[in-house]
């Protein structure tokens, strides 16, 4: 008989794991606590490892990317304390040539590829009990509770994973605190006086505003700031909280973003953490994506690692079809070096997103300016060499 896996979470990690397991000959069942599938979402970048994972999962042809122009043609601007606009390196100028997408673009591509997989909305696990040959799960929906047995449970239910809490212990044992907050959402329209696909960066000591330009979609915005009192940030109105945090940054970009937040139909507002665990599996329960490692937004690798994690889990169980313990060992051994590397680099990237002090802000400006000059010389050198066709980057 085909082995059955319960996948908890209908996000990027969950659907990737379901596809990977189905390709390995398993029958996945997905449960999602939300009443329906989420759409839209904020800007994310797909690095080469994420694009390779998308190809491995068979979703590359469904994945719509939104890079704003050919390399070197899209504008990114940095606004200084005097309101002066200067050319800058944007998020997509990082090594590896990341592809710009919305989170919903990846989820839509995955959704097209899980046709035939059973999905149960408004359903969550309450208890998980492991046996020698199976794992029993008490599931709950709006109407009732019922028990069901599976050969494997996959926790893909985010940074505050219920599967991780039930099986591995309280969140406090696994979440590292970064003393920072983020708010990400879609803008209805670009900041006035900027071109449609421009990206804008205002990085000040302990607070920053980013606008990510896209090729065929309104930009998305990120507000991020540092704070010692995380719990206080969740009290009262979020909009008023953010207006208070960014008061004094009297810039048209900041005003436009804050005004747009009041009209945004949906937004992500949360504290910043990473998940650190000595092992991502025990017995017949395994974690993937943010539930296992949560790179966090500063790393820029969340979507990439979630896709890669689902593909890696599927490949491991396919390689060890009759030995689940060996498969989970292979999954962890192969993936952990990649996760550890990018978790560590996220601390440096946090300084690039939101400097910790005026001195760090000044150092950031120097480093970005130097990197931009080096990149400019490289592009000039390449322009003088053999010409090759360039991809548009808007749909691949």
Automatic annotation (TrEMBL):
Gene3D superfamilies documented for this protein = D-Amino Acid Oxidase, subunit A, domain 2 (3.30.9.10), FAD/NAD(P)-binding domain (3.50.50.60)
The protein's matches in InterPro entries, at most eight in alphabetical order, are given as: FAD-bd (IPR002938), FAD/NAD-bd_sf (IPR036188), FAD_aromatic-hydroxylase (IPR051704)
FAD-binding domain sequence ranges: 5-341
User: What GO MF annotations does this protein's record show?
Assistant: FAD binding
Highest taxon listed in the record's lineage: Bacteria
Quote the Pfam families the UniProt record gives: FAD_binding_3
Name of the protein this chain belongs to = 2-polyprenyl-6-methoxyphenol hydroxylase-like FAD-dependent oxidoreductase
What lineage is this protein's organism placed in? Bacteria, Bacillati, Actinomycetota, Actinomycetes, Pseudonocardiales
């Amino acid at each position: 008989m085909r082995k059955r896996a319960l996948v908890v979470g209908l996000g990027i990690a969950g659907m990737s794991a379901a596809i990977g397991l189905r390709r390995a000959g398993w029958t996945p069942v997905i449960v999602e606590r939300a009443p329906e599938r989420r759409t839209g979402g904020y800007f994310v970048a797909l690095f080469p490892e994420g694009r390779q994972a998308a190809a491995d999962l068979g979703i590359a042809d469904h994945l719509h990317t939104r890079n704003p122009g050919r390399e070197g043609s899209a504008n990114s601007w940095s606004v200084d304390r005097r309101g002066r606009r200067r050319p800058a390196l944007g998020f997509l100028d990082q090594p590896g040539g990341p592809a710009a997408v919305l989170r919903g673009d990846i989820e839509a591509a995955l959704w097209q590829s899980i046709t035939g997989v059973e999905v149960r909305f408004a359903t969550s696990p309450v208890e998980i009990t492991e046996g020698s040959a199976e794992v029993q799960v008490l599931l709950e929906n709006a109407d009732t509770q019922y028990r069901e047995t599976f050969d494997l449970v996959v926790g893909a239910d985010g940074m505050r994973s219920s599967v991780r809490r039930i099986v591995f212990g309280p969140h406090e044992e696994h979440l590292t605190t970064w003393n920072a907050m983020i708010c990400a959402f879609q803008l209805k329209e670009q900041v006035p006086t900027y071109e449609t696909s421009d990206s804008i960066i205002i990085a000040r000591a302990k607070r920053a505003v980013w606008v990510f330009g896209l090729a065929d979609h309104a930009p998305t915005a990120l507000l991020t700031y540092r704070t010692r009192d995380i719990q206080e940030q969740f009290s009262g109105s979020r909009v008023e909280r953010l207006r208070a945090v960014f008061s004094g940054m009297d810039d048209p970009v900041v005003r436009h973003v804050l005004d747009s937040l009041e009209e945004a139909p949906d937004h992500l507002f949360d504290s910043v953490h990473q998940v650190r665990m000595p092992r991502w599996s025990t017995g017949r329960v395994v974690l993937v994506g943010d539930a296992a490692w949560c790179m966090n937004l500063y790393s820029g690798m969340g979507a990439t690692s979630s896709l890669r994690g689902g593909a890696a889990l599927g490949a491991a169980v396919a390689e060890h079809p009759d030995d689940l313990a060996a498969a989970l060992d292979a999954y962890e051994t192969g993936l952990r070096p990649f996760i550890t590397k990018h978790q560590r680099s996220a601390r440096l990237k946090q300084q690039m997103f939101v400097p910790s002090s005026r001195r760090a802000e000044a150092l950031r400006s120097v480093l970005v300016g130097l990197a931009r000059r080096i990149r400019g010389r490289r592009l000039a050198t390449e322009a003088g060499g053999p010409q090759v066709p360039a991809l548009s980057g808007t749909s691949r």
